[in-house]
């Protein structure tokens, strides 16, 4: 187990290096000159020159990359060119919002997707199986922006149960925070639930036809014990990896959903930064997102090995 973990950690180093290289390179393809944007309407040549020197925009791209990587390794992600705030402080401010939203969404996705997948496999070719498959098809094909607008219209405008937009921190009002994030969390979790349902159903069908399940039934065990203790435990092993990937996608920032519900998370931050050509913020947010995604993949691999003893050798 320790050797496996060591190998996976060593693989992270070149992965993060190439990710940082891609992030910095693609950033240079954005149209416009940030120095001209920051200089304002007058665009005094002396001011533009000072901005270029301050942010090393007058240096060759490889030199800029080296300075950026040195800063990242020391914990300095740079400074926002627009609002003069450390990118690290912006990340610390926005990341908890996205973590809360993503955590609620993945809980909804796991609860609905796994439950529907298990029922669909156990009750194969029944009305519950067909209903679960229709739900999965609906979840994958429904645009998130349309579902978000419809939920706002129903639960906020018509019923008045939930706020239409905005965000309340849990430290200020816990239940108010839940109320402000439950609709966007359901919109995001709806897509993940559809994916998890299909994979859970397929894994459960394979498990229910396996030899160890037939042996458990031959021993006279109750069907509930066969399904939950034998079939479901083995069927959910591949779902662990899928759940980690879904959580990584949610943490990367749901741009449309955060824009619709005015949630000040990573998605809204990166959209605003791209429009403002705030290079440092875009680079920092994307790098943090990629690092979190890679870390979640590592944790999924570790959990996969812990759950499945056959992989430990």
In brief:
The chain has 313 residues and is an all-alpha fold. 76% of the residues lie in helices and 0% in strands.
General description of the model:
The structure is a single chain. With 313 residues, the chain is mostly helical. The chain has a domain at 102-277: MetI-like fold. The protein has 14 helices and no strands. It has helices at 2-27, 34-39, 45-54, 61-73, 87-122, 127-141, 144-158, 174-208, 211-218, 223-235, 237-251, 255-261, 266-275, 279-307. Helix 5 packs across helix 8 and helix 8 packs antiparallel against helix 11 (237-251). The relative contact order is 0.14.
Can you lay out the helices and strands and say which pair or pack?
Elements: H1 2-27, H2 34-39, H3 45-54, H4 61-73, H5 87-122, H6 127-141, H7 144-158, H8 174-208, H9 211-218, H10 223-235, H11 237-251, H12 255-261, H13 266-275, H14 279-307
């Amino acid at each position: 187990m320790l050797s496996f973990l060591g190998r996976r950690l060593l693989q992270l180093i070149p992965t993060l290096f190439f990710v940082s290289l891609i992030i910095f390179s693609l950033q240079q393809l954005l149209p416009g000159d940030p120095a001209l944007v920051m200089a304002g309407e007058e665009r005094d040549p002396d001011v533009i020159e000072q901005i270029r020197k301050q942010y090393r925009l007058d240096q060759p791209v490889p030199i800029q990359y080296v300075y950026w990587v040195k800063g990242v390794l020391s914990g300095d992600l740079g400074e926002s060119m627009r609002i003069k705030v450390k990118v690290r402080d912006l990340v610390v401010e926005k990341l908890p919002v996205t973590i809360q939203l993503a955590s609620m969404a993945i809980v909804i996705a796991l609860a609905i997707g796994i439950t529907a997948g298990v029922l669909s496999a156990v009750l194969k070719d029944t009305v519950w199986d067909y209903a679960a498959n229709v739900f999965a098809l609906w979840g994958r094909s429904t645009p998130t922006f349309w579902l978000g607008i419809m939920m706002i219209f129903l639960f906020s405008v018509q019923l008045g149960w939930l706020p239409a937009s905005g965000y309340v921190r849990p430290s200020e009002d816990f239940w108010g925070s839940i109320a402000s994030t439950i609709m966007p969390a359901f919109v995001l979790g709806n897509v993940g639930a559809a994916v998890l349902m299909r994979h859970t159903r397929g894994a459960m069908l394979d498990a229910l036809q396996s030899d160890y399940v037939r042996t458990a039934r031959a021993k006279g065990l109750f069907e509930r014990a066969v399904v939950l203790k034998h079939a479901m435990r083995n069927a959910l092993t591949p779902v662990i990896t899928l759940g980690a990937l879904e959580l990584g996608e949610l943490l990367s920032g749901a741009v449309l959903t955060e824009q619709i519900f005015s949630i000040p998370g990573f998605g809204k931050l990166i959209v605003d930064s791209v429009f403002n050509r705030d290079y440092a913020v875009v680079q920092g947010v994307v790098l943090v997102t990629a690092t979190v995604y890679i870390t979640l993949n590592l944790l999924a691999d570790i959990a996969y090995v812990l759950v499945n003893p056959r992989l430990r050798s």
